[in-house]
Amino acid sequence: MLVRRFIDNVKQQSWFAVGLDVLVVIVGIFVGLQVTAWNNERANKATEIEYLLAIKKDLTADIEIIKSIERTNERKLAVFQQTITLLLANSSDAEIATAFAANFDRFGRFGFFRQSRTAYDNLTDVHSIELIKAKALRNHIAEYYYKNYQFTEGTQTQVARVSRSFAQTFLPKIMNGDTLALIFEQENNWPKNSVISVEDKKQLLSTVYLLQNYVLSQNETLNSFSLDAGEIASAIEKYISGGADMMPDTASETKT
Fold this sequence. Notes:
By secondary structure, this protein is mainly alpha-helical. It has helices spanning 2-11, 15-88, 93-102, 104-108, 118-126, 135-170, 177-184, 198-242.
């Protein structure tokens, strides 16, 4: 209809009507583009909020995991200190062996923190981190997930390696009837005495001291992760509620 009218107006050289028809077409195209852009923006905003809420849920899970590991580490540190005290006091072989056996599970157990990062990985794989429009919040989220790689490959790997090595090395050295009864919770016919050499005691002391420092370092980093996770989760909540970027901005973009 519009095309036929346009042709008729051209034939009749009704230039005002021609101009009006052209204007109607231009306005129609412009309005259509604006509506499309508006719909796309609404869809992107909804997707952004969906991912942010999922990331917030993962961050909350991280905080709970960290709390659990920290509780385990507190018990481990108490056992480490007890063992160090016995060794520094040059306690008897039987006392050292019994203390080690009574807390054997603490020496061999370690909490390995792995982030809950399903939402973040889905965001970066399917869309882009740029979907999050708040620059400072976006940077902080990217930094949070990026630095976990360094932590996992560094301190945590050392804690795991030394813990396993410690259990494998010293368990045979303290095996006697009493310690085996503590470990396996059943009677046995093994000899009752353990002999721990001076060199073994030196190695035991140095290893426990090393483990103690690794666990303290792990706790320090875990606390940093927990604080970051809480801060980001709070910023996400405020951003979704008020639409403002609530994170302090960083000097440069973070590698993702």
